[in-house]
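Tutorial handout. Part one gives the primary structure; part two gives the three-dimensional structure as tokens.
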Amino acid sequence: MQYENPILRGFHPDPSICRVGGDYYLVVSSFEYFPGLPIYHSRDLVNWTHIGNCLQRAGEFPLLGVGDSGGVWAPTIRYHGGLFYVTATLEKYGNFIVTAEDPAGVWSSPVWLPEIGGIDPSLYFEDGHAYYCTNDRLDPEQEMISMQEIDVATGRIIGKRSMLWQGTGAHFLEAPHVYHIGGWYYLLVAEGGTYYTHMAAIARSRSLWGPYESCPHNPILTNMCDPSWQVQCSGHADLFEDAQGNWWAVHLGIRLARRTMTHLGRETFLTPVVWQNGWPVCGHDRKAVIIEDGPISAAQNPPAPFIADMTRTDWEPEWIFLRQTDDARHARVPGAMLLRPCTQTLLDCCPTFAAVRPTDFDCTMEAAFTFKPQQEGDEAGLAVRLDSRFHIACTYGYGGMLTLTLQAEDVTHIAAQKPVCVTELRLRMRSDKEKYVFEYMEDGSYKTLGQVSTRFVATEFMGRSFTGTVIGLYAACRKETQAVMRVTEFSVR
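Part two.
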């Protein structure tokens, strides 16, 4: 049956997946956003529901000191002995493991592994033993994948660390996963960096500890020589067998918006896998594509709109915040969301900013809110953020001025301004591959305030970003204020 990639659209990089019976659970990186490591559930591989987040208590995951594109990344999810295990790396703090009996429920406090270096960790269970795999080096001059046995309950190392494989020589060796399939141990890795030379490569051995032989047709997945440019940057994959015995890879990739740029960031793709001569063969001549054919059991539904449920007094799992959740500044009450401005702006570490991940280039974000600025510098509205140096804000401020501002590295540009005499506002942002158009409601119809090119929040334009754009509600002030942004409607379609 035909389906369309990506299966998780927008900012969903570094996917890992596990199957329990007929249920599939998938986790992706979250970097500087909190709650962290969003987890998704599906029974058919093409329709996914965001059921929760693995990192739920901000005090246990210190994100305040992490930079843009820092924080938590490259998780692996596995199921063993009635427990779900997720392991990942937290910038500056190292690797950790969290567990849950129900992945939609409460996850444990982290077990830290201070003795194990490297990034992009993975777990492998066999015969009552647990093994931990990263790109930690025995020799600082040589890239390698190494592994050691651990006690998953305490994080204690058991035995010595051993090198498994040094990759194909494409550099940036990372994201290891170990599998035992058909009498062989397979070691899947990512190489080439996470941009246009990204790839997945694999090796195998009859012994868990090696030696591992490289697949003769490595890389097994890459779009770096794909002339169609439909998909690029494919890599960082996880192999799995579905309930019907079919094999697949989930992996990251990007869709291009304009020329060689994307502002959505790295997304999650699903590519069929077949086995030939004991080696996995991925996709179409090792390439991922947008329109794919595979043994899917259900029709793929179009992406559902996100409409905030204003009867809730908690935040839906789709909402993310910068580095921490501050209940004093981000509150839910029956019928509304309350955002209290703070002196931190989008240039800073922890602004008042409640966001969601857009799921396509063609997107409409709309909000209705009241806001009464008390002093100069009070502002509230909508924002698009790639990182602290690249973002767009459409805000209503003191003096009744509606302002559209672009921040592109060290340049602050006022793209449009318009005086409006209202305290009940309805703002809308419409986007496509080329531009963001910001509008305001006046006399019952939308009027255009201004537009900004998507290139200014493209990951390639800024030079280095592991995230993608997020969009949402924003409020700020120059000094403490009593002004409150009261949001009664919010949707992304």
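Part three, for discussion. The mean pLDDT is 96. The first helix runs from residue 459 to 462.
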